[in-house]
Structures are given as C-alpha cells and as structure tokens.
Amino acid sequence: MKAFDTGFAGNDIPLAKSLMTVLGIDERRLSPDYWGAVQDAGRLCQVCGDRGRCRAALADSTAALGYMTFCPNADLFGELEAAAVGGLVTDRA
Questions:
Q1: CA 36 to CA 51: how far, in whole Å?
Q2: What region does 3 belong to: left with phi over 0, alpha with psi -120 to 50, or beta?
Q3: Which residues contact 36 (CB under 8 A, 6 or more apart)?
C-alpha cells in the first residue's frame, strides 16, 4: 500500500484535518483519484486568510454547517464529504 501525503503542513495540520474529520472525511480511505486534489487543498489552506475564522468555527462546533461560507476548499470538501457518505472511498484504512 502506497503512503499518502495530504500536503498539509505546519500549523494547518490540525486545522485542515480537523475540518475534514468534522465532515466525516478520512483522507486515508479516499480513492487515489482524490489525492492530488487533497494535496492542493492542503497548500491552499496554508495561505488562506480565513484560518482564524475556521479555527473559531471548529472551536464552537459550527464548522460543519458554516465552512461553505468562507473556506476556499469548500467545493472540494463538499465533494469529499458526499463521497465519504456515498461510499466512494477505498478500504485502505
């Protein structure tokens, strides 16, 4: 099994992974088709101007409902959330 690097780095590791976890997204179980997009999302998260807003939403448990209004990765995370719910993941975990 090939290791998967999410592309998340530094202080954004817990932030991005926390949002993905809240949304029910386990990057270890995603199809390889999503790996590049998740890596791109990790790089975008590192330079996002709304990291503070994201941290606050995660802290007050509103992230799952409100991330779409400020997250530049909202479209991807929404797609991944739907994929996780729909079973479009692998059984690598």
A1: 22
A2: beta
A3: none
Express each pLDDT in 5-46 by its tens digit.
Answer: 555 555 555 677 788 889 988 878 888 888 888 888 888 888
Q: Which residue has the tokens 């991807």?
A: 76
- State residue 65 phi and psi, 5-degree precision: -90, -25
Q: How far apart are CA 61 and CA 56, in angstroms?
A: 8
Supply the DSSP symbol for 7.
-
Q: What does the block give as tokens for 55? A: 């941290």
Six token digits for residue 78: 């929404």
Q: Which pTM was predicted?
A: 0.73
Q: Which two tokens stand for residue 84?
A: 């996780």
